[in-house]
Amino acid sequence: MELTLPRIYSSETLKNASICALGADNLRYLKTVLRLKQGDRIIIFDGFGHEFEARIGGFSASGVNVSLEKQVPRTEKKISMTLAQAIPKAGKMDLIVKTAAELGTDVIIPFTAVRSVSRIDGEKASAKVARWQKIVREAARCSRSPLLAAIEPVLSFEDMLLKAAPDARKMIFWEEEEQQNIRDALQDQRFDGVKQYFVIVGPEGGLSRDEVDRAKASGFTSVSLGKQILKVETAAAAILSIIQYEKGIFGQTAGEGGK
Predict the structure, then answer these.
(1) Is the pTM of the predicted complex or chain greater than 0.90?
(2) Which residues are within 8 A (CB) of 86 and not within 5 positions of it... i.e. 6 or more apart?
(3) Is the Cα dihedral 12, 18, 24, 25 positive or negative?
(4) Would the pLDDT of 259 be above 50?
(5) Domain final residue, candidates 71, 97, 123
(6) Are residues 104 and 172 in the same domain?
């Protein structure tokens, strides 16, 4: 696969498909911005792991017709990651979602913590989730991921805890934790072979002791990043990067599968 080919997201599944119709949103980008023409080659992916080298068949007023050619082999991931992120102030969640998606996070769960300053509910929450889904699509396009991170609706702390699978490595990051850091948690031999990681990151003011206790009662381990205090958007990126380095995509060579 040529890395220089433009990479385009298709909202239609490409499974068992030979042609694809890209909507009007891609028409301007391909024809006016990239100045592509009929016969030019691109990469198409659907966010479900299906990715193809393709050729533009033609332009119309409503979109772009594309013929699918060679399927791009899919590299299996070693692990899956879920980030449960307490809603931070202002637009910081946009950056967290973008970075998490680029780092190969599979599921992003926004939730409301006791110390969350921003409160999102109702129509506002739906609009935010739609915006984050758009950010995820763009992040997948740029990072060449064949999969889209799923964005869950904004949940309460209690409902978020219920999303963790019983066999996942469940970690809640707390700046007051003094017994276990992330290195110790990831090197704990009791969890060798774990394929799912579920991590909770708090808002700017951190998580309350009561929230941490409730998470522990649900099977989570309290973990710290050490003595250095990071901004919420930096903390999420650091945690996900460390997990991927130790267990995931940064620990495998190009073309290596998840075996």
Answers:
(1) no
(2) 110, 111, 112, 113, 115, 116, 200, 201, 202, 203, 207, 232
(3) positive
(4) no
(5) 71
(6) yes
